Amino acid sequence: MERTEIFQEVDEIVDRYKGQITGSVGILQDIQKRYNYLPKEALVHMAKRLDVPLSQLYSLATFYKAFSLRPRGKHLISVCMGTACHVRGAPRIADEIQRRLNIKVGQTTEDNKFTFELVNCLGCCAIGPVMVIDGKYYEHMTVRKINPILRKYETG
Amino acid sequence: MIKTFNDLERIIERLRTERLAEKSRITISSGTCGQARGSLEVIEEFQRQIRKQNLKDRVTIKITGCHGFCEVEPDVIIRFEPESKKSIFYQRLKPEDVEEIVSETVLKRKLINRLSYVDSETGKSIAYLEEIPFFKKQNRLLLGNNVFIDPTDINDYLALGGHTALQKVLSQMSPDEVIEAIKQAGLRGRGGGGFPTGRKWESCRKAEGDIKYIICNADEGDPGAFQDRSLLEGNPHSVIEGMIIGGYAVGASEGYIYVRNEYPLAVEHVGIAIKQAEEYGLLGENILGSGFSFTIKVSRGGGAFVCGESSALMASIEGRLGEPRFKHVHATEKGLWDRPTTLNNVKTWATVPLIINKGADWYARIGTEKSKGTMIFSLVGKINNTGLVEVPMGLPLRELIYGIGGGIPGEKRFKAVQTGGPSGGCIPEKLLDLPVDYERLTEAGSMMGSGGLIVMDEDTCMVNVAKYFLSFTMDESCGKCTPCREGIKHMLDILTNISEGKAEERDLEILEEIGNMVKETSLCALGGSAPNPVLSTLRYFRDEYETHIKDKKCPAAVCLELIQYSIDEVKCTGCGVCKKECSQGAISGEKKEPHKIDKKICIKCGICLEVCKFDAIVVE
User: What number is the ipTM of this complex?
Assistant: First the structure.
């Protein structure tokens, strides 16, 4: 993507927050939503627009869990690690996904297809263990269900 | 745009009449859980059937937030008259059930037995919502309206008398009178700490400064708690009304709702609600012609648990790192941008209109001496009726878990209930008759927190639970103060050793010593309460820790390093399913002969346990 195009899009996002530093976390959310991660050029431009040092944005981007400085895979898999999911066996689900994709939490597969993350609680405790892929919720997960679900995304 | 008090009254009256003229109403729950379970497909099918059978004028479809009975979602409530005392309740719906519901129940008023709720105790099916124990035993002051309201339509809220409390406050009460009413009611902060709300408001009102702020804390970070999500998704206007009243009382004209970005539906509904309230003139300049102005902005979180702590939350709204600060000066004097700020939880704000409408005395009669009103608990974990339950403060745990929750599934034994999230503790069976309020839970070494109740059975290992919470808080510690940053890490190291059978007996004492140190010396409440899960399990389940250390065994068969998988030769039929599913090739055996697990290859993933139909996999 052209740098100027990124600048333009970041400008639009920053304008929505009236260019105020108060909006930082929201601006970062929106940039991430647009690019799937926080591209360096976008942060550099955002810092210029808000008139803050880049290091300040870097500290925000690394403090808050929601942000990623590296490009993420085509599909984002999150497994809920809330207490209710935990007592119902979520760690086994998380382990199996890591084995299956041969990546660790927070990593992306080599072919850029999947990124795997843990999330603290999605608040759907009744249907745990919960796995979410690209916003679609899979309820009452078992180790056995993982393979068929992942296969759909691998081929699709 | 509603410009005067009279206009509001007229509109409410008109909407009420309209609603009373309605014929049959079909209400479908469609919060996050409902949608995850396919409510959207069910809704689509209802709309299709209504069109197909040409019933548009006779039937209203209402899409609402969560009804609270998560276990049976998606569910539908059918009423033939608006004021009817009985509503048909169908559960666990699939799109293919819809046609029958419309043609049999809606048109011919016939009940469909197989879709009704079946009571786990008696085995009988119950057709009406009002008769289901899960609902009958609750007092749903805050949650009750979720079943009547389409959260994306402000008219539904108004039709139920929404914003009449605001009208009353603005037209008849002085700010001091509002604060007095909240004090009289005895309302305490529902975010967990339980600080008296009226006193908080009073000190903010008295604080010097022409600009003051109102904040709604919707950064519901406690894993296992989702009542704030349910309220924001299902009835956002009640929270907004409470905040406007709070603004009037303390003298603030600007409010923020700080909400988790992990709750996309809540973020969406709150945004819509604010916009509609602005269009109606209930937010903005000169509300209802009273001269009072108030605006609300939404601030989304970035996925940091510590931002649920008030000073960290304010830093985050300001666009800074969510790090707590030492609170020698209260936020009511110097909070957001160093201005006097009143921060309350979602549930606290939603309670305010109720108190104004029904009176402080009415509210103060509910609950216990020091803990007034109702509390919403999320009943989750190893429990039959998972869901959100709202009960008066002081109800015994036993009634919550067995009376409303329907007990533990699969004839397992109850072991503990965890309250208060990562800041709380585990309460054992012998304390099940404990009446739940702020004081009693603290005495028992736990806390109210945001109302999560996670039920654990005999298959839950208490060392593992403590380890789980500590890894959570270690991960979420912001790292600013040493006791929290280093202490929790060290405690977790010891717990890991225990769970791997590498600990010594004296480690338990060290664990307690560090725990108490972290508790006393941490900067904020996150660190100050982080050792609670460890200290409370040590208090009530010490023997389980000792078994891990002395016998190198995990009684609940959870801690991976201390367990082994094997196959019961008598029970195994040699069906071969486990062998086929095992990704490691650790299972061998001929067809129809007992199989074996090679312990050297087995990675204890548990898939054989999941797939075996004959209960032949042994974990010990």
Answer: 0.89
